[in-house]
Here is the input.
Amino acid sequence: MAGCGRSRPRGRPIARLLLLHGPNLSQLGVRDPATYGSQDLAAVVDHARATATELGHDLADEQHEAEADLVRRIHTARTDGTDAILLNAGAFTHYSYALRDALAILDLPKVEVHLSNIHGRERFRHTSVIAAVCDGSVAGFGIDGYGLAVRAADAVLRRG
Ligand code: DQA
Here is the structure.
């Protein structure tokens, strides 16, 4: 974490958070609003960023439809100054061992986030193959879950 000066809550170093979104999350707002809410991806990211800013952190974000792009971005996070990752991997959550392996390589705080409660939906969504290589998961709280996920990342960072 960088430690240099700008307005932030006292005693907290600035962290660079990376929020990654996987496939079909680009379609938020039009995609099944009863499940995912009516806000688009930009609003979701703004919500996460507002919490990051409140805690004195920076938040970058990317969305990728392709598994390979997500894997590459996770690799890059090892050396580009990223301090923690928040990830909504979309459907890849449930079957991408490639994403799981990429996350396992990365020795940073990692928070899994989902808009919907994946455990209350179709059986195939009950399994997250990435959960075990993340510090924890937030699911089922819609856009508010992103604020919770940022706070979780902040807590893991402060724990050291
Ligand atoms: C999701 C849940 C996944 O099962 C689904 O494939 C998504 C969105 C969520 O945010 O609730 O794309 O990750």
